[in-house]
Amino acid sequence: MQLPFTEAEFLHAFARYNQLLWPGMVVLWTASVLLVVRAVLGPRPAPRAVSALLAVHFAWSAGYHVVFFAPINPAAWLFAGMFAVEAALFIWLGVVGKQWQFRIEPGGHLFAYGLIVYSLAYPVLNILMGLSYPRMPTFGVPCPTTIFTAGVLLLAPRPPASLVVVPVLWSFIGGSAAFVLDVKADLMLPVSGTLLLVHAARSHRGRSREVYALSGQV
Is there a domain that residue 147 lies in? Predict the structure, then answer.
């Protein structure tokens, strides 16, 4: 695959991001950890809080595309639009409209929490896999954001289809970096996208069966 940028330019974009925005990145990482700790050890996190945090994740990643990635790749404007739409959907469905009530489904958490922990450990994993700070993807950029989101949505019994589209698309777009740009930690991206797609398909199939059963009783 022919890319419009070199590997050096790609890593330099992350270096600029890490050097300029590391305080915000730390805050976002900490907020994400607290959400997970509360989900595991404390009372279940409020649906609005979950949606708001995921909206921040995608808005932050959209900003990364515009400020740091667009100078080396014109397609970043399209990617930024995708992530901005996802952020707006989380706000509209989960915060303002409350059409999606996030709740944790009993059982079946292994893959979900595995993806979440993986995304939180993403910067360390990149160092262990041969990259060096600051010229490496860390937290808050699109790939760990997608893995984190896939993990959270796997905890939801029936995530809306509209919230699944962008994470699944990016899991395969961004996953190419694992092969083309040798970012080995991104190998988890297509895995997360596949798991989310299967989960969404199964949950909506179950919903369709319930609706059909109810209609047959009327």
Answer: yes
